[in-house]
Amino acid sequence: xxAQLDAPHDLVGIGIGPFNLSLAALAHGLPQxxxxxxxxxxxxxxxxxxxxxxxxxxxxxxxxxxxxxxxxLADPASPWSFLNYLRHxxxxxxxxxxxxxxxxxxxxxxxxxxxxxxxxGLHFGHQVDAVRWNPERDLFEVDYTRLDPAxxxxxxxxxxxxxxxxxxxxxxxxxxxxxxxxxxxTVPVVHSADYLDNRQRILGAEHVTVIGSGQSGAEIFLxxxxxxxxxxxxxxxxxxxxxxxxxxxxxxxxxxxxxxYTRYFHSLPEPVRDRLVPAxxxxxxxxxxxxxxxxxxxxxxRTLDGGWPDAVLTPGVSVRTAGRxxxxxxELHLEHVEQGTRSRLTTDAVVLATGYRERPLxxxxxxxxxxxxxxxxxxxxxxxxxxxxxxxxxTGSVYVQNGERHTHGVGAPDLGLAAWRSAxxxxxxxxxxxxxxxxxxxxxxFGLDQREHSRPRPVGELLPLVEHP
Length: 469
Description:
Elements: E1 2-3, E2 11-14, H1 18-27, E3 31-32, E4 36-37, E5 40-44, H2 82-88, H3 92-98, H4 105-118, E6 122-124, E7 126-134, E8 139-147, E9 153-161, E10 163-166, E11 170-172, H5 179-183, E12 189-191, H6 195-203, E13 208-211, H7 215-227, E14 235-238, H8 259-267, H9 270-279, H10 289-301, E15 311-314, E16 317-325, E17 329-336, E18 341-347, E19 349-352, E20 356-358, E21 397-400, H11 405-408, H12 418-430
Parallel strand pairs: 1-9, 2-5, 2-10, 5-6, 10-21, 12-19, 13-14, 13-19, 14-15
Antiparallel strand pairs: 3-4, 7-8, 8-9, 11-20, 16-17, 17-18
Helix pairs in contact: 1-12, 7-10
């Protein structure tokens, strides 16, 4: 095993998704006290950057404006902005005339790959195996395996760092009743994350069922609907939610994705936060209005000749169990909660738009576990600066990106807060303010505090945060 004993980094990032890529871009070229430029390294086991490749459906757009790129909301003049990407590609004028506020997912992926291909200090094909605290050196040890193009171990290595940033992302979630079917190859039962890789096979199935009422489920249902002949669509779309509901996209509703709301949410007691997150599903799990309209328009168009499309859209349904019929079909055992009824559906292919779950950090952080402070549910406690709360003996910081929904709320996975969070991390890490941040970001005042009434307070002044156990 090789180790960089004499050159500890200031920051090592584990995972290179949009959030750690944002952190790497904003860290690039920053000075560090007495050490020249901030020394960073980021590791990811994949061979290169890819952002949800299975969902880059033709025409599918982001649910956030293009300003929610990797850097702009923290540093509009950054060379790593989306607009600078367009300038380098000589596409600024076409984009200007296109008048697109919400860009296509495929273009966002291409932009991120452009940044990842030019930014120094990114190490793809490196799998981080373990992290430990070395009290003798006051540094974190990071063990990794360098992988060859086939994904096999090529060499072992170790590096040292003063701080860590965890950006390992999320993993596709497959409900328990459907896991055995998804693992068998005979009938296509695939997660939406793998949709494009299996699209032709799914299109060839006689009957297709989409499960899940979020944006991914809607986009896949629309794509399948458009690809199948009128009157012979043979599609079912099932959802546990009581309706195929629109995403909350009102101007004041969107203020739940501001730093102001994040600070407010973090200040709440743990039990309150745990109740709020599932209740706010429509803020991030609904369907954008344009997609809903496109689905309805496509369905309506197919009634012009007097018939109805062979498509069944049923909300309020859960899958209790599932099994195979011979080797070519799947039987879903359904329950309608409001009716209290049960039924069966036989289908030839299933697409699971059942979302993602945060990747567990237990194995990766096993060496740090004695130092980590946990909440009542055994989750890491995270302070208002995105640092895991650790034993005072650990002088370095472990920052969390998109693993702190339980402490920071629904904005944790939102691309619109990526640059702001990265800037907050770098301001704390450097002890300076390389990225000055606004005091106030929302018209809404979230919550009341008795201290507000004790004296006049300038507009936008922030109250101190309290870390709840």
